[in-house]
Protein 1
Amino acid sequence: MNIFSEENCRKLFARGGFSAHEKELAAVREILADVRARGDQAVFDYEKKFDGTELSAATYRVSEAEFEEAYRSVAPELLSSLKKAIGNIYAYHTRNRRTDCIAKEGGRTTGFVVRPVDAAGIYVPAGTAPLSSSVCMGVLPAKAAGVERIVVTTPAKNGKIHPLTLVAAKECGATEVYKAGGAQAIAALAYGTQSVKKVDVIAGPGNIFVTLAKKEVYGEVGIDMLAGPSEILILADGSVPADFIAADVLSQAEHDPLARAIILTADRAYAEEISAFTEVRLRTLPRAETARKSLESGGGIVLCADLQSAVRLANEIAPEHLEIATQSPEDLLPLVRNAGAVFLGAYTPEPVGDYFAGPDHVLPTGGSAKFFQVLNEDIFTRKMSVISYTKEALETDGADIVALARSESLEAHARAVLARLEQKEKEA
């Protein structure tokens, strides 16, 4: 890995965003319009074009027979591991659910009630590998929120979805699973087709076409976030074995040539040791070519003045995954303001969060952790305000409300209150 000084590392942190993808956006808009106009047939045509999958109204939705076949294909030991992960993730998402909050004082009732959306669409990518973990991380927060209809859509290869993906969908409680990926899948969820009833919220990561499609349909439906390539940023002080850090860097670099893996440390000798271990590990990594491209284009080790300086830089970067691999990681946590997820200590590598611990792994990328949050049950709920005034409370506050309405030249607003206040005068 290349080693940079804090002064010359800015290029390393630059992200492209989504505004530069004009060609992809034009293609996405064409697909969205086509699916909106032609429904199922447009989806089927794009699936044949992009994935070589022949679909019909009879095969678009995964059947019970296909689920049963999937279960027969999954080893019992792997199913056991999956169920443990599902238990942890669901328990986490049900631990701190939002609840109604109503307060009554002086004849005034104010507050909110929490309601789940009616239907959620969960996109599960499958471009380079089957991602059953993404099924769990998308479906379970929706289930924890109380969503009754949870629709999963994921690309099929040769008309089939990976067995573990289907088993995960069934175990997590998805109500429907469809064989479609890309912008056409997002369009089906957002607008509805002959086979797919539209949803209210779409969540889950995907490639640039999926992300741009989510961006385009926002407003027609809600979305969780706009996700880009995976990222990891590691704050390291030399107390954690360099080989651990090298392993963690590669755990993200193997995702995608555009993935980012960056280390911040104040120790040059330690940085050189990490770089050497990374090279050794690359030699035996099955996805070494992808990981190497990632490290060459968006990876590196930055030498900072001290840990405090490293934390300030981390907050500026706002990474998707932030590992604090230091002697006392809990001491630095209060200083962290912007990150998708934070992993503390030598024995909490990022894959613990990807698969098993409980917190979601669908996280904001590209610096959007400054304003987006991790996918959680709140994404699938809405707060609805509740207001109730007694006659006496309105008599107390009425003059102020009338004055404020008239200050905005909204006389009908004022008169809606006055009608009730004048009723009292008539009764008197």
Protein 2
Amino acid sequence: MKRMNQIEPLTEQMIAALGRLVQYNSVEGEPLPGKPFGEGPAACLKEALQIAEEMGFETANMENYCGYAQMGSGEEIIGLCAHLDVVPAGEGWNTDPFTLVRQGEKLYGRGVSDDKGAVIASLYAMKLVKESGVPLNKRVRLVMGCNEETGSKCMQYYAQHGEPITAGFTPDGNFPGIHGEKGSCHMLVRSKKTRIISMNGGFVSNAVCNRCVTRIPADAVEQDKLRAELAKTPLAEWKLAEENGVLTIEAKGVAAHASTPLLGVNAAGYTMKALRDAGMQDDFVDFYMSHIGVDCDGAGIGCKIADDYGALTLSNGIVKTENGVISCTIDIRYPVTLTPEKLRAMAEPNLEDEKGSIIIEKIGKPLFYPEDSALVQNLLKAYQEVTGDMEHKPEVIGGGTYAKSVPGIIAFGCEFPGDDNHIHDANESLIIRDFQTQVDIYAQAILNLLKG
């Protein structure tokens, strides 16, 4: 393994700095004057900029949409774009999600892998490059955003008000690099008529619905049959309880990122499947199962499609009931060779019948860089030079990163091949050795881009 410098003596500093960021619940909150994403993200950005200043970097706060740390000089900018906001903690943690906890060789806390750990790794990579004595004939700028998880308005603000980035990366994906990102589509499902009294579950739209509580009339289904069908599902836990003529179904599934829904278990979806298979006659149960289902492939809306880089996926994130109407958020990731116009044309004939409706709220374009492009190759070489891993190659993912908002960058790390850091799930973690290696890879990547 090639190392620019020994990072081990700086490890405790890095861990302490990461703890300073993890302490903030930087989930997007209600907008406040001068704080477009609420108190938490703004406070976390202030702390991150303070850390950068302590390390000797120039800093700027761009109206609490984002901020940056910078070194070097010149017209061109090597950009690293990471985010400080996080998804909600959710349930199931063994530790306080907003306190950095060290257990053996792992660090635990919300954001340690997505993406606060990468912010710290990037700062220390810049430190290594700065101290190496390499001429900084370009500026190296770490842009830290506060709204990646809920829309990337932070980077849209940077694109409008900041200087353009010549080339760079966002440390918010996988090694050895992401040369393509599927397009995204957000839809909202609504019931028209249903016997379901209420159905509520999920914690964020871009993760699989991991818990769901459903209330139905006790006479809507035979309970023995429902128990039998629930027992057939992959739900982690389920429970039935009857009181005052109302049957309550509590279902626990498995959370997963919306880009990889097959790694999760949709608590709402399998509740619906069990109700249907147990014989419940209900318009919305029928609509959900015929249009959404549990297969995650989009077949129910006429969008089962794949290309050489992957298949379309569909994920149900949040389910809620308001004024007797059940709504479900749908997050679709579609192949990089498919256009938004083609996706819309495929879906629209299949979005409504007498039992329910689906509206398309937003369709985002895919991103694609050829594997042999200079940017992809410069980053790949940095990974290979540090790790010696020549087997793994850049990939196309279903997740969306800042690369879609900032021209000239791709996602590069910070998760290593084969790792599962429980991103967007309880007990999010980071292996300390990986934390150190991230710094070396990012330092080498900066050097490669300075030469390029």
Protein 3
Amino acid sequence: MKYSERYDSMKTIYIDRKKMKRLVMPTLLFAVMFFAGEGYGIMRHNVIPTSLVFNETSDWGLGFGEEGKQPVGNAGVDELRAYNAYYMGEADSNVIYLTFDCGYENGNTDAILDALKKHNAPATFFVVGHYINTAPDIVKRMVAEGHIVGNHTYHHPDMSAISDMDSFSNELNMTADAYKELTGDDMPHFYRPPQGKYNVTNLRLANELGYKTFFWSLAYADWDQNNQPDAEYAVNKLTERIHPGAVVLLHNTSSTNAEILDELLTRWEQMGYTYASLEELY
């Protein structure tokens, strides 16, 4: 099986309804309702205390309220910060942090880089080991144009199923070694868990290795190249849900993203937003 097929088979589903239902304490007398947000788990405000979810293996999820306001994650900002983990910036700053998950190359990344360059917008590209080995020139371009190349593990496994340091560090070290062999530089210690799966042990292990973990506060269903969203729909969705301090997750494989990014960045600028590197988030 080709890697792209393996990666595609691991489509991101950020809230497993059955798993989340098991987390609800039986003494609670209200119903917990979950609904999907284009493939990303969207959780209603204040349904489950964040600490209840935070102390279990979970999939990263968000609850959106009023348009233009910050969403609520299934772990709190302060809880995450204790492990050098982040998903959103300050509520009083109209700054956007752009991130892209890169599982394989299918010809859309150059257009994405062109749009970022046009708008002088820094981004972080979270790459798997395979990407470094198969798209070295694009990785070099990312670095040359001032973007961060972060660690998305080597094989894109469910890292929440890994609890020992040797196995956990091996996934990150293999990617970091490939990056250093290609560029001659150490890979930035920025990490994004595949599929958004995490638990406290994972956050602790990443922190012990010197990595900062980054989730996101805005995403949409863009990863399936065989089922791409309409361009107008995508722009409207991402414009409606943008908010101060947003960490935006997009996928480099998306032809829709390649098509709309210039327009999208222009729209956000017209709304008063600017772009900053993840280095400025923490």
Protein 4
Amino acid sequence: MSEIIMSEKVGCAVIGYGGMGGWHVKHLQKSDVAYLCGIYDIKPERAKAAEKNGIRAYNSLDELLADPDVVFVTIATPNECHAPLAKQCLRAGKHVICEKPVTLSVEELDSVIAEANECGRIFSVHQNRRWDVDYRMMKIAYHNPKLGRVFRIESRVQGSRGIPGDWRKEKEHGGGMIYDWGVHLIDQMLGIVDDKKIKGVRCLCEHIANDEVDDGFQLDIIFEDGVVGHIEVGTHHFISLPKYFMAGTAGSAVVQDWRDRTKIVSCLDKAENDVKPVVTAAGITKTMAPRAEEVLETSYIERMESDVHDYYRNFIRAIRGEEEQIVTHAQMRRVLKVMEAAFASDAEGKTIKFAEN
């Protein structure tokens, strides 16, 4: 492998030229820290599509791995290929970025990490949704004193098109929504609460139109201090609930979707004397009577700038020994452990006690 000169861009090749592979290619073509050497895909039509777009298509994986200009590889293949491809690239002396989920089990991940350590190479998973602005606003909201003690955080992604008509529908390829979207939302939830310890995990998977893999799920991560992180993914919803909702003892926060700013409503006077019952439908209620406007305060967390290519910038600085990896091996492993606990909870119909190791 050629020596890495600190001021130069670093060469990268992408394995898999499908949806996410194409996404990576476009970002690498305009990167300020890396340049694209080429792609490899087992499907001839994708290789031809790359060449038509002026991109080199390697004839084989061996040819790609033998290219001294390729310092690191980004793997964007079906999920079951991640671990074996990562090991092969590491053994060839390449640093590796792997699309999510990094592997299909903790055991598999441990074997890849061991390979990376033995080869002295950097290995990471592309947790790009750490740069979602709705998530970043929720990290700020979690520490906002206007909410009081936060006790519930809800995160959800809902659509109406079912699972896409490809390998994501099939168990042998690591399909299903826990692997597809759960991996992101779990990583975000753990990030919001600053990776606090987990007490238990409970999950109910949905099989609305697919008996082989989950096409939706509801997952609760119960943290040791009592906070519940509730995650929902649905693929048969024609009306979507808010992307994020956060409840605290003194206020609430909500983000409708990724285009929205965060709204915080907090209570200035929880005592509020002389609460009058209100008529609702066929009865009255005092418990659910709305607060008087004068005791409520509304504030906002504005959307910030966010550049997902900071992930690549950090990865390359980690290769050069200038920074630690943003997405750590311990974080990758913990997300997978939650996913495994979610599958076990659904299968056994109970809350799974979480072991932090």
